[in-house]
Amino acid sequence: MAENSGTDPTVDSNVVENAASDRTMIVVTVKTPKDKEEITISEDSSVAQFKEEISKRFNAKQDQLVLIFAGKILKDGDTLNQHSIKDGLTVHLVIKTAPNDTISSASSSGTPQANSSVNPSSAPNDSTTPDTGPTPASTQPPNLLSGFGDLSNLSGMGMGSANFMEMQQQMQRQLMSNPEMLSQIMDNPLVQNMMSNPDLMRQMIVTNPQMQQLMERNPEISHMLNNPELMRQTMELARNPAMMQEMMRNQDRALSNLESIPGGYNALRRMYTDIQEPMFSAAREQFGNNPFSALGGNLDSGVQPSRTENREPLPNPWGPPGTTPLESRGTGASTTTTTSAGGTAPSASNPLGINASGLGNGVFGSPGMQSLMQQISENPQLMQNMLSAPYMRSMMQSLAQNPDLASQGSNPTATTNPSQQQQQLMQQMLQMFAGGGGGSLTVTPEVRFQQQLDQLSAMGFINREANLQALIATGGDINAAIERLLGSQPS
Amino acid sequence: MAGVKVPRNFRLLEELEEGQKGVGDGTVSWGLEDDEDMTLTRWRGMIIGPPRTIYENRMYSLKVECGPRYPEAPPFVRFVTKINLNGVHNSNGVVDTRAVSALAKWQNSYSIRVVLQELRRLMMCKENMKLPQPPEGQIYTN
User: Fold this and answer.
1) Nearest CA to A254 among A365, A326, A354?
2) Are B59 and B83 in contact (CB under 8 A)?
């Protein structure tokens, strides 16, 4: 009957502990969801003392114990009497385990999700784990990774494995359906920090198993990833949607020049024909009937292509040339964009220069590309994964609406510089991702700025390409465009 | 004893006793809010958050009001502890009668325990078990 109040500083030593002789002892049943114990204690005890006994019996710390009786939580300062706890009655016990990870993960969503999940020190290691939670995350470790799953997906181009897919898809869906969220995420300094760390980004990309597969088959991608300049630039672009759009348009314009190169179109077409069959059949699963009818849309050259999935070899090279490139481009874009930059040189001032070189080699000609295509067609699941990523859709829609972009994506030139390809590809992809929601180009810039273009050329700016880019960048403002042109001449 | 109309107070006293004896699986608890309440109207309930859900390790306190027509009429239930659960109003914790089948299809053989257990079951539903929750310890003030 030792006095044990001295051992516990929280217990008021004046209160009689259960050793007292002339207090009535009562037997109280203490029930946990798993366990049941009968505890003998003095009727006048305080809850604190009661807990002391319980902690001994259940082998848990006192502050882990939560006692409930008759629907009320028993506080340490209360007495059993207060709650009318009498002999033979049952008190419920909950033993709290470590403080909730679920709470911290529950509170994160959207932007904060990127916050909580950004942890540079542990990032590279964590990003490998596939189980990322959707925005309402369930437990902490997955939540930590969900941000990565998302961001690495940025670069992974939606090529998440089937494991990742659900989570990433959900995330992407949310992101895409809520462009504000995306810009929120992008604006988040943490995200920006992370993205400005090329090593980190690279790690994230690399550890995505799909990317790894891809890299094996297509060394160009690893080149791309290994080029810090490129990564930095890419991340720059990813951060700045406006910049990306501009880049995109640069490339649009550059590509449109391709059409004017004799023989260029043929080369393009040839390539597409090689690819389009397997691509399309793979895509067909995904889309069903008429996937590329949207892609078969407007051509700025004025030739309305047959808006069908006309897969036949094109009898008339100058007839519906847009269709085939577009359609195969559609699938090609989604798959090839990951491995090859479709665009020509990023610089506005020398599109033709680069265009002229390497004609006929073709992006699709490169073995890496072909292997990718094969891989894609062999693995409809992969295709499906890629295509079902929502931003893929928006990208394809954009592609549809901008045939230039589409043909650009398959630009045979610029193979001489694979890293450039990748770079542009990345740019495209990232822009698509970021700008896909709002950036649909319904009317080609060339058409829109027709009048301004004429004015500029009348003024003596003969570089139509550069003109157009300037106009696009300034939104049609001639004066500003002129300033741009004058200012960017050395480039 | 189906069909027998038990007087309200008898029923409630019985429930009081059950609450004190811990009848049930130990995951819910209930009792009078005020032991001196002779009308046995205001009750308190406690639900222990089910494991493997976002509610795990949390204790949810509720107020249950058994009106004069209890047990012919279902009780009013509202959460005191803030919770994000389908069927519970976000602003004041009031449980929507239509969302809880025990309340929507109330029978006089049901009891406070049944309602509490049903709410706990709802926490385990797919649509609820991952809902993000407010920080622990917050209560509704209205």
Assistant:
1) A354
2) no
Q: Cβ atoms within 10 A of the Cβ of A240, count?
A: 17
SS3 category, B15? helix
Residues A325, A303 contacting (CB under 8 angstroms): no
Q: For A176-226, how does the pLDDT look when each residue is reduced to its tens digit (9 = 90+)?
A: 555 556 566 666 666 666 555 656 666 666 666 666 666 666 666 566 656
- Interface A-B, measured as beta-carbon pairs within 8 A, has a size of 92
Burial (0-12, 13-18, 19+ Cβ within 10 Å), B36: exposed
Q: Which stretches of A292-350 are DSSP H helices?
A: 323-339
- Structural domains of chain A in order of their starting residue, each with its CATH number: 25-95 (3.10.20.90), 445-487 (1.10.8.10)
CA distances from A27 to A50, A89, A198, B6 (A): 11, 8, 66, 32
ipTM of the complex: 0.87
Average pLDDT value for chain A: 59
One-letter amino acid for residue A216 of the chain: E
Q: Do A33 and B57 touch (CB under 8 A)?
A: no
Amino acid identity, position A27: V
Residue in the structure block whose two tokens are 């049952």:
A90
Domain B8-124 has CATH 3.10.110.10: yes
Q: Burial of A86 by CB count in 10 Å (0-12 exposed, 13-18 middle, 19+ buried)?
A: middle
Is A100 within 8 Å of B56 when comparing Cβ atoms?
Answer: yes
Residue of A nearest to B45 (CA): A71
Nearest C-alpha in B relative to A74: B46
- A24 contact partners, CB below 8 Å, separation of at least 6: A42, A43, A87
CB-closest option in A69, A94, A97 to B59: A94
User: Global pTM?
Assistant: 0.39
Contacts of A7 (CB under 8 A, 6+ apart): none
